[in-house]
Amino acid sequence: MLHKIPDTALAPEYAGMIKPIEACVHCGFCLPTCPTYSTMGDEMNSPRGRIFLIKETLEGRINSSDIEPFIDNCLGCLACVTSCPSGVEYGELITPYRDWAESKRKRSTTEKLQRFALLKTIPYPARFRAASRIARIFKPIARYLPKEFGAMMELAPTELPPKIDFKGHYPALGQQRGRVALLIGCAQQTLAPRINAAAIRVLTRNGIEVVVPKSQGCCGSLAMHIGESQEARQAARKNFDAFPTDIDAVITTAAGCGSGMKEYTHLFSGQDEDQRTQANAFSSKVMDICEYLDNVGFIPPKKNESTAIKVAYHDACHLAHAQKIRSAPRKLLTSIPGIEVLEPDEWEICCGSAGSYNIEHPDTAKILGQRKVSNLYATGADLIATGNIGCLAQIEFHSKDKKAPIPLVHTIELLDGEI
Amino acid sequence: MTPFLEKLRQLYPSDRLYEDEARLTPYVSDGLTVFRQKPVAVVMPLDSDEIVATLKLCHEFSVPFVARGSGTSLSGGSLPIDEGIVISLNRLNQILSIDPDNRTARVQPGVINAHVSSAVVQHGLYFAPDPSSQSVCTIGGNLAFNSGGAHCLKYGMTSNHVLGLKVALPDGEIVHLGNDSLENVGPDCVGLFVGSEGLFGIALEIQLRLLPIPESFRTILASYESLEAAGEAVGTVVASGILPGAMEIMDKLAIEAAEAAVNAGYPRNAEALLIIELDGEAAAVEAEFTALSTAIEQTQAKEIRIAQDNEERLLIWKGRKSAFSAVGRLSPDYLVQDGVVPRSKLGEALKEISRLGSEANLHVANVFHAGDGNLHPLILFDGKESGALERAENLAGKILRLCLKLGGSITGEHGVGVEKKSFMPEMFSENDLEAFKRIRQAIDPREISNRGKMLPGNEAPALSHSGPHPLEQAGLISRM
Known about the structure:
The complex is a heterodimer of chains A (419) and B (480).
Chain A: H1 18-23, H2 35-40, H3 47-58, H4 64-73, H5 79-83, H6 91-102, H7 109-121, H8 125-138, H9 147-155, E1 169-170, E2 178-183, H10 187-191, H11 194-205, E3 208-211, H12 221-225, H13 229-242, E4 249-252, H14 255-262, H15 264-267, H16 273-285, E5 286-288, H17 289-296, E6 309-314, H18 317-320, H19 327-334, E7 339-342, H20 357-360, H21 362-377, E8 383-386, H22 389-398, E9 408-410, H23 411-416
Parallel strand pairs in A: 2-3, 2-4, 4-5, 6-7, 6-8, 8-9
Antiparallel strand pairs in A: 1-3
Chain B: H1 2-11, E1 17-18, H2 21-24, E2 41-43, H3 48-61, E3 65-68, E4 85-88, E5 95-99, E6 104-107, H4 113-120, E7 125-126, H5 139-145, H6 152-155, E8 162-168, E9 174-178, H7 189-193, E10 202-209, E11 211-212, E12 216-224, H8 227-239, E13 246-251, H9 252-262, E14 272-280, H10 282-298, E15 303-306, H11 310-326, E16 333-336, H12 346-359, E17 364-369, E18 377-381, H13 388-405, H14 424-427, H15 430-443, H16 462-466, H17 470-473
């Protein structure tokens, strides 16, 4: 699309926004797969509408404050990237734009508090555990709280599983085929440490040595996707130091973390050369657990008997759209005797979790969550599997009223063969 | 405008009436972004009553309006009108009823084309018109532009698949055109409405004809050394007496773009690719396939591939249908043309287009409905280069005139819109255009419905451009 954004208007870290704007031909193929367009039905809440609005803002025709609601409504699910024939990398526009606009933004005190609470609790397991205890107390009065906090309390887990302390190193079993480092994640480590435990079992059983760096922290994706790039870079730098370099891959079991870490190249684009090199090197090693297992050749667990089990696979947006990984998890799942993978309708539409979206935009998130749950339940599956902790929490939350809830697991738990 | 807007505000809550810069801006253009016009307001009605009330207001204040679905028009058909409003029909997206026995469905105008087919697939039925944007574009827009697609070669355009309409005329009056059954009485009023580019009001309910999903498909890819050779192969296939479901041609640039977009598995070294699809009852398709194979053997096909399963077939079509947008990967900007030539003149037209392109020093990608002779040259240019847009438009004009010279049309399915309005006098005589205008005035005397589209030079209110009646001029009659 033609634009008149002055060459000098953007600092180096924001220069990458031009390419997606130029690549968009405004054809509208992104509209039906956009979760906000499909619920709200208006152009400003569509990908091409947002691209146009950002263009106008960068050209100086509109104030960034005027387009805030429409930018905020975006879940960053990147379904538009999957459906775009012109190859517009929307993620390379929306993420830096959010950061660009944040500095000009005037937020209310409650909004600031909410963002502060999100950024300073979820990424830190100890704080997150403490906060969950507090949230449990406030749960009964969640609906009387300001909307910025209501959803936070409502979505907070009622019960947390016991903590698992991982060792720093797990040797490969049998013949060694590889060596990886595992990002254990922040929220996931609090909400469902069983996922990483399963990942370690599957990896080691597959002949992969697993390193779990002790001093690792949050990958910064949460901050990156809400326009706090500086905070995200800080988190990333910490992990650059914490992770060894003599590994084949940095493995994650959370799609959101995987997609965020693969974006480090863009996150560091405006930084000095050393940092850019470090970011590129780290980023190029990041792999989702299923992507990695499929790559090295997955050896399914040995089972004496196979039970027929129908699994509805939910594509996490940050896996399917952001990392374009759809076939690997299906291939791995069906390699286990007895597992049949069912495909729910509207696979490309986000479940509404989207990082912290369900806390910041509970109304839209609720519509999307219910829609996802009804599509998943319509498959008649025995189990629902997905590759992201956020989706697991969101789907679980919106199926809590179901009379016969379908059990929900992470893909790796099925590959572990314990279910 | 203020009294009009005040009344509009009584009709719509603020979350369905957009007047501010930020919410109007994304509506300034449709799929053809070289034209941009800010509307006074955008309204988002929820039902027919709100549409009718809006039209009555527009009529009362002579405010022009354009109805908009997904805004995918490639001719500026849903471009807002100066001092006018946009009526967005996206929330009228319900399939009202499905009658599998009689193979019909009744839908609202905002329903997406592909959603009709997915809603009736359980009955073994589908909606045949398949514009490339079918995953996005709405039935209302298909109706306004008499949209076609790859498979219209065998099954016809939208007009062949609409049985009846409930329409709000530009003054808000409701009329029923056609009827709900498969046969009709009297003149074809539905036919008049379909393809009228929004000049006759807004369709509120549309009765669609559905077809049984073909039992069997055979999809063949044949690659050629030149575009002309592929064009001539179309003639050979038609001469053999087969009527394929679709016959499409893509040239090297289009193949490259589509491959980059969807990895459709097209032969990358081909200069031109002919896609032929046979569909129908299994036995008939097999017989046709034998005849087709013989026909193709007579052409200079370099390589022939046959889709092995439905997945491969769908991928072939996904590539073809993504081609326009995918060309965005090759060039920052492009113009899509939609001229038609008689099928027998395909080879000649393609050769001349290529010559005109070199003359203008512009790349032209070709992807088109070869069976219908409906060309889609995509003129690539870089808008940042000064004068490039003008050069591209100039070339587009030459291509349209070429189509007319060869006995064709300026548009096959994208419509005239604002883009090709100035070419209407080259295709139609003054008397023809005058007849169009009289029909238009009979239906919309204030010319508020999509004013400024399709018909050249009639932006002004009705009376001023048609002038006084001859009897008035002679002083025999007078009006108040």
